[in-house]
Each structure stands twice: as C-alpha cells, then as structure tokens.
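2024-03-11 09:14:02 INFO receiving multi-entity request
2024-03-11 09:14:02 INFO entity count = two
2024-03-11 09:14:03 INFO echoing inputs for audit
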Amino acid sequence: MKALVWHGKEDIRCDTVSDPEIQDPRDAIIKVTSCAICGSDLHLFHNFIPGMMPGDIMGHETMGEVVEVGSGVDGKLKKGDRIVVPFTIICGECDQCKRGNFSVCETTNRKKYLADKVFGHSTAGLFGYTHLTGGYPGGQAEYLRVPFADATHIKVPAGIPDEQLLFLSDIFPTGWQAAVQCDIVPTDTVAIWGCGPVGQMAIRSAILLGANQVIAIDCLPERLSMAEAAGATTINFENESVLERLKELTDGKGPEKCIDCVGMESHVMASLPDTLLDRAKQMVMLESDRPHVLREMIYVCRPGGIISVPGVYSGFSDKLPMGAFMNKGLTMRTGQTHVNRWTDDLLRRIEQGEIDPSFVITHTVPLEQGPEMYQVFRDKRDSCVKVVLKP
Amino acid sequence: MFHFSNITRSKGDPKIVEGGSSLKQPSDQLARALGWFSIGLGIVEFFAPRRVTETLGMEGHETMVRAFGVREILAGVMSLSVDKNAGLWARVGGDGLDAAALLSGLTPDNPKKGNIALALLMVGGIAVLDYRAAQDTKPQRPGPNARRKLYPNRSGFPKGLQAAKDRAKEMIQHATAGVTS
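2024-03-11 09:21:47 INFO inference complete, emitting structure
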C-alpha cells in the first residue's frame, strides 16, 4: 500500500509499504477513505518532538471502512462499518478510561517504558506519532491497523460526507475540549491564540457553549477572515499590540478565559524579543518549546481566570511568569484530547446541522501529493488552512 | 529492496517495500554538509586555537580564533536546524570576518603568508558555497504583500451564526433550569 513515511527532518515521502496485519484479537483493519494533515504533524515534520524513527507512518486524523476484524472485537465492529478513528488509542477498561480520561489510557502505549521515563507516567498510545506514545503506524495510508478497535472507534452513519465527519478524529473534539475546559459562562470573553484548524474549532465551540465575546488572535488574513466568519473579533498581532487590544476589548479587565491553540512553535517576530530568544535557544537545544503564547496569556488573563492549552508542548519551556500565574489565581487546564468523551455529542450536533466542520478544509489532494502538502501547509502557501488527503 | 529502517519496525507493522522520492533538494544536502563542516571547524578552532595560529603565523590571536570557533559552531547548528537559511547567512557573514582576519595577518614579515593565501582561497570557495546554499534555501513563505484568499463565508454554522448563538442560549437555559428545579 501507499503511505506517507517519515524519513527525517522535513523529509516525508510517499512510500510503498507492506499492508498492515491483524496482530491482536482486538485489532481491526480499515481501508482509509479520508485522512488529514494536522498542525501537530508539523512538529514531527520539523523533528521538534523526540522519538521519531525513519520508517514511521504519519497521520492521526483518519476515517474509513472496516475490512477485517480480529476475533476479540466482540461484535462491536464488523466488516463494512464506517468509522472515524480517534487519534488516542484506548482500551476502554483501565481506571483512566473508566473515568473518561481516555488520552491517558494506562494500557495502550506499547512503549510505556519510554513515556514513564520522560513524562513520569505513560499516556495513551497515539497513531502516527512519536515512539514515546507507542510509535503506532499512522493513518496517512491506504490501510490502517486499529489496535483495541473494539473501543478505539467512532461509528458514523452513512449519508454524511467524510469531510463533515473526519475531524471527529482530532481537531473538532480538541477545540471543543479546549472550550469546555474553560467552564464558559454567558458573560465570558474567550480569547483564542492561533486560528489554525484547532483554533477555528475552538472559536466555534466557544460560540456553541455560549461565550459572550470570542476574540481570535493570529497574523494570517485568511485565517482571521475564517475566524470573523464565525463571529469572532480578530486581532492581527503583526499590526497591533495583543495586550493593548485585549484590554480595550474587555474594559481593561482582560479576558476571563484564554485558549492556546498555538503550542510549542509560536511565531517569531523581531518586535517580540522573547520569541527571538526562544528560537535561538530552541536551535541550540537549550529549550524545546517556544512558549510566548503562554507568557502572554498569563499576563493578560483576568485574575481568577482559566487558561486552556490544547496546543502541543513537547518538553521544556523557559521564563514562564509563575509569579503572575500564582498571584492572579489562574487555573491551567491542558492535555491531549479525550476524544471519545465528546464525540457522541459532537456527532449529534453535526447530524442536527448545528455545525459543519468541513468549513475548515481548503485543500483536498490525493495521498501521493502529501509530502508536497506538508510544505504548503507549513509555509502557509496558497492560503492553506487544512489539507485532506484521499488515498 | 533492503531498507535500514525496516530493522527497527515492530513485528507486524508495515515495512517499506519501495521508497518514494524525497522532496529534499541538493541545496538541502549542501546546507547539511556546510552545517557539519562548520561544527567541525568550530571545534578545531575552539579546542586547538594555538595550532591554527601557528599554521597561519598569527600567534597571539588565540582568543579571537576561539571566539570564531564558537561562532562557527552556532552557525553550524543553525544550518542544521529548520532555520537553515538563517544559519547559512550567518555563515556568509562569518566568511567575511574570516577573510578580514586572514587579511590582517597577510603582512610581508609573516613567514606563513603562503598558508594564509591558501586559507583565503579556501574561505573564498566556501563563501561561494555558503552564498549559493543561502540563496537556494530561501523560505518559501508568501511575503506580507502576497495575494491571499479570504474565507468570509465559512462560518461552519449551516443554520447561521445567530442560530448557533440562540442554540447555545437555549442549552444554557435548559442546563440552568435543570440545576434550579
């Protein structure tokens, strides 16, 4: 089969690889009908997240049709079922899964010993990601083996196009969880840094959860226009001061809720000296993340407010203003997404026409063009916001 | 075909049968080679500055050579990073400093001036490569004045923004009623 394979920094190729096989009775194999490139794939593309190995198949936003099931799937899936695959692999049986904390499933990381060493405790296995999370082959391929398939799936009905359902695998529940974690009340102003795909979903989630005002921060006109389309007030940080504008928009009080949809690779600008320092330190491996957005959020968030962090951080961040964080009594909530905790509700909202996540797709191309699209997406060429690949 | 990376695959995981083409350009390979060269030269300059100054007949300038070594290592690391273009331009600037330093040692009484001339020739050659690689690895991000598509009609709410807001209000009222009743 064809698959997008990681060969090193900025080197992803469309290789021919052997077909996946059932390895465990709880496995299923799906024929992939649609998959997408995620912003966090770019961290792997840049080799900023440790633990990638040449030969790893990329991709964790995938859906398709079940073509083979193991004997232990217990009738929960059958050949021909149409499923979206959550990016977090879950057993559905461990203590964390029972609590709904699916992204920290205690069972599914097959390289638990690595994560235990690096993070202190293992988190769930993830598709197409670092070996710290199991090194499972990803879904930017023609076929995908889904481990623990009896639990790791979202069954979706026929009649709704892939484009509306695909993002249940990651970015839609990720944006949703980011907003839910903010405990939004109807008087809240929610400020969202980053209008990439997760940021766009977080904006719409905040609206659906009843925020009074949503403010979206980015520097790309196409992304800001998409944010405005959903009713957000926008700030272009290349043209105006984020801190001053946020104060203006909140009568000097600051937003009650802040969401970081940027993560470890924040924009580097000469007018923001901390971003230059972070970049220099990241280059010489003195710091793994560029946490400018976290610093800005802590500084600007209203005392007693909540900071929600769906953006990916990989290791160590310097110069976080913990004094401000502590004295302002802020709360930070973060984590990989507990996808299956949210997907029943989100699928219902899609079915009822409350939201159509396909709005975010700007490019749909054959899988073979994937390597090129990584560059287009990374460089924000051709006003690219979200790429869907068709195997 | 044998692929080294297949050795590390977990049992049963897909293995590479036939490799696809890489989008890496020759300029990327050149940047990588120059990056490693820079680090190697930097290590020599930092740890053996006296050998360098003796070879060039420029004794007494060890501190400067050491500082140049640090600069070479940093530029090399940058050239190997995703910001390789910045690293390569740093190298081009460094080549200028190297040439200036070598020229200052090219005095009639320097018995090693032949070595300095050779070093200058090498710096010139490397500078051409650095400049070429820096030109060829320019980031392809659209400039601030590039034409961009805008997406003002992509709200994502099939029933419209107001309906989404109304629905949210309804849900909140429903939840509040549930709490108070």
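2024-03-11 09:21:48 INFO post-check: The CA atoms of residues 129 and 135 of chain A lie 6 Å apart.
2024-03-11 09:21:48 INFO post-check: The domain at 2-170+337-390 of chain A is CATH 3.90.180.10 (Quinone Oxidoreductase; Chain A, domain 1).
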